[in-house]
Amino acid sequence: MSSRLPAGVTRDQALALYRMMQTIRQSEEGLAKACASGLVHGACHTYVGEEAIASGVCAHLTHDDAVFSTHRGHGHALAKGVTPRELFAELFGRETGCSHGRGGSMHLFKPEVGLMGTSGIVAPCILQAAGAGYSFKLRGLPHVGVAFFGDGASNNGAFHEGLNLAAIYQAPTLFVCENNQYATEVAFSYATRNTDVYKKAASFDMPGICVDGNDALAVYQAAGEAIARARAGGGPTLIECKTYRTRAHAEGMRESGYRPLEDIEAWKRRDPLKLLAGRLSAADEASQAELDAIAEQVRLIVEDAAEFARNSPYPDGATATDHVYAEA
Amino acid sequence: MREITYSVAAREALSERMAVDPTIFVVGEGIGRRGGNFATTLGLYERYGQMRLADTPISERGFVGMCCGAAMTGARPVVDFMFVDFILDAFGEIFNQVAKMQYMSSGRLKMPLLMRGCIGIGGSAATHHSGSYYAQFANIPGLRVVVPSTPYDAKGLMNTALTCDDPVLYLEHKNLLATKGPVPEPEESFSVPFGKARVSREGKDVTVVALALMHRKTLEAAEALAAEGISAEVIDPRTISPLDTDTVLESVRKTGRLLIVDESFQPMGVGAEVAARVADQGFDDLDAPIRRLNGAFTPTPYSPTLEAAIVPNPTTIAQAIRDLVKE
Ligand SMILES: Cc1ncc(C[n+]2csc(CCOP(=O)(O)OP(=O)(O)O)c2C)c(N)n1
Asked: Mutate which of A186, A254, A255, A316 to disrupt the B interface (most B C-beta within 10 Å)?
C-alpha cells in the first residue's frame, strides 16, 4: 500500500528530517553513555523521543532566525546548526565546545547560527523569543523568534506574559510547547486543570495548533505554516506538540514509579524515527537500505564527535572570568 | 551524641515541627511523593499528606506570593526552591511583599514564612544552579538569612526558623548535605538562636570568619597550618542577618588579625560587612589590614578547570592565612 508524503513535503525534505533525527538520537545515546562513564561533568537531559519536534521546526529556519531553548536543548542546538563535535565537546567541558566549556548542557550558545541559548532556568526562553520577534519587526527584518519549552513551563508566568506580549505587538514569534506530560516527576495533569496547552492561545487571541509531536511531517507542516505567517506579518502562533520522553528526566535518574512503565513502552512503539521511516517506505520514497545508510553515516559523525571531544583540551583556568563584561 | 547527616538533621527538624504545628505546609517542585530533589521532605508526604506537602507547578513567583498571603492569614508556609537559584524569579514578591509586610502593617501582621534552597558551586552545575545569593538577600530589611554549616546547626537553626515570626531564608550548601556530625536525640528539643556566631576552632594568631562550605574548608586549612605553628581561630557566623559582630570582635581582640573567607562575591559582600564592622568597632585591636578571600566575581563556569579556578580551597585559604600572619 503506497501512501504519498503530504502535499508540499518533498522526498529530500523528508530525508533531511530523518537525517537530523538520527543525528539527535545517536548524539543523545552517545552522550548518555558518556555520562555513565564520567565524561560529562554536569547534568544531562536527553531529547530521546522528542526528536521530530526540533527537526520539524528548525528545518524552516535560517541562521538569522533566533531560537531560545531549555534545559533539554541538545536537539534544538543540533537542529539549529551546532555540530555534534561542538555539542560533545561542550558537555565534556572542553575549550572546543560551542560555549568554550563555560556552559555545559544547559548553557549551549551559538549565536552565529541563531542558537541564542539553552537555559538552566525554566521559561525565560518564552519571553526572549517574544523579544526577538519584536526586534525583527522593529528592524524590518523577515526573521522569526522561536521558543521551545516543556509543558511545565506553560504553567509559569513567563508563558502567559510572553504570549500576551507577542500577541499585542504581533511579534513574529513561534511558541513551541513540547508537551511530554511530565515536569521532572510531576504529571502535567496534576499541575494544570487544562492539559491542552494549545487551547491557552485563545486567551491571547493567537492561533493555537495541536500536533502529534512524534510525527515529524505533521510538525514540519504546522511549523511551516506558522513561520510563513509570522514572516508575512501575521503575528505569533502557539504550537503544542504532544510527545513523551522515553529516557529519564536527566541521566542518572531512575524510573521511580511516577509514570506507568507501560506508557514508556507504548510511546517507544511510536518512536518518531520509526514513524518517519515507516512513512517514507509506505510512500515508496526511500528503501530500508537508504535509511540504513543515513543511520550509518550519522554513526560515524557521532563517533568522530565523541573522539574529537575526548581529545580536546580543557579551558585554561586563568580565563575563567573572561566575558563578564563587554570588551572595550 | 549520635551522628547524622546535615540533610537528615534539617529534615528531622521540619518533620518534628510539622508534628506539633498543624499550620505548617510545604510547597515546591517534587517535594510531595518524590521527597524533594535534595531529599528535603523524604517520607513527609506519607506522614502529613498532600495538603501539607503540596507539589507545585513551576511557578516560583506564584507560589511565593501565594505563601505570603497564607502567612498573613494564619498558616506557616515553607517554600522549598530546591536549587535556590530559582528564588530569583520571585525576587519582587520577597523584597516588596514578604519582607515589608510587617512594617507596612505597623507590626499587626506577622510573616512566619520559611524559604529554603540549596546553594553553592560544585559538580559543574554551571551558572543557573550554583549561586549563593545570601549577600543580596541579607541586604533586605525584614528578612532573616540563615546559612548553617553543620548538622547540629542545620537542625537547631531550622527549629528557630520554624518558630520565628519573621520571614527566613534558610540556605544549605549542596556539598554539606551528606556531611555528618553530632546532633541531640530526636526527643531532645534544642534550638540555635539567630545572630549568635560559633567559635569552631580556637587559636591565637589570626581570626578567620567563614560560612557554609567555606567554613569546613577553612577548618581543613587551619588544621594543616597548625603543623606549621600557625594558630588560627575559626568562626562560623551561622546567620548573616542578623550578623553577630561581638564574637568576631572578641576574637580579633585576641588575635589582632582578621580574614574573611567566602565562596560568594567580594563586592558588597559578607566580608565587606564584617570588615566594616570590625574596622568601626575594633580598629585599635587590629595589627594588620583586614583581608578577604572570595570566589571570583563572575557567573559560574561549567568546565571543572574553570570551576576550580574561581572558588577558594584549603590550599588557597591556607596561603591567605600565612600571608596575613606575616603582615
Ligand atoms: C525556574 C525554574 N524552576 C525550577 C527548575 C527545576 N527544573 C528543571 S527542569 C524542570 C521540569 C521542566 O519540565 P518541562 O518544562 O515540562 O520540561 P521537560 O523537562 O519535561 O522537557 C524543573 C522543575 C528550573 N530549572 N527553573
From this structure: A186
Cα A183 from Cα A200, distance rounded (Å): 18
User: Same structural domain for residues B224 and B168?
Assistant: no
- In Å, how far from its chain's centre is CA A251? 17
Give the model confidence (pLDDT) of A218-264 as tens digits. Answer: 999 999 999 999 999 999 999 999 999 999 999 999 999 999 999 99
Is residue A321 in some structural domain? no
Number of domains in chain A: 1
* B198 residue type, one letter: R
CA nearest A41 in B: which residue?
B124
Q: Is residue B289 part of a domain?
A: yes
Instruction: Find residue A110's DSSP bridge partners.
Output: A115
For the purposes of burial, counting CB atoms within 10 Å of the CB of A256, is it exposed (0-12), middle (13-18) or buried (19 or more)?
Answer: exposed
Cβ within 8 Å of residue B54, ≥6 positions away: B25, B26, B27, B31, B32
Residues B216 and B99 in one domain: no
Peptide bond into B242 cis (omega under 30): yes
Question: CATH number of the domain that B236 lies in?
Answer: 3.40.50.920
Which residues, 6+ apart, have CB-to-CB distance to A7 below 8 Å? none
Q: Which residues of A sit within 8 Å Cβ distance of B?
A: 41-43, 93-94, 99, 101-104, 106-107, 119-123, 152-153, 155-157, 183-186, 190-192, 256, 258, 314-321, 324
For ligand 1, what atom is nearest to the CA of residue B29? 23
pLDDT in tens, B249-273: 999 999 999 999 999 999 999 999 9
The range of the structural domain enclosing residue A200 comes to 11-306
Is A213 close to ligand 1, i.e. is its CB under 6 Å away? no
Give residue A8's pLDDT: 86
CATH, residue A294 = 3.40.50.970
* B85 C-beta closer than 6 A to ligand 1: no
- Whether the predicted model's global pTM rises above the 0.90 cut: yes
Give B13 to chain A, closest Cα distance, Å.
26
The whole-angstrom separation of Cα B291 and Cα B206 is 11
Ligand 1: centre distance to CA B134 (Å): 23
| Residues on chain B bordering chain A, Cβ-to-Cβ distance under 8 angstroms | 29-30, 32-34, 37, 55-62, 85-86, 89, 123-129, 296-299, 301-310
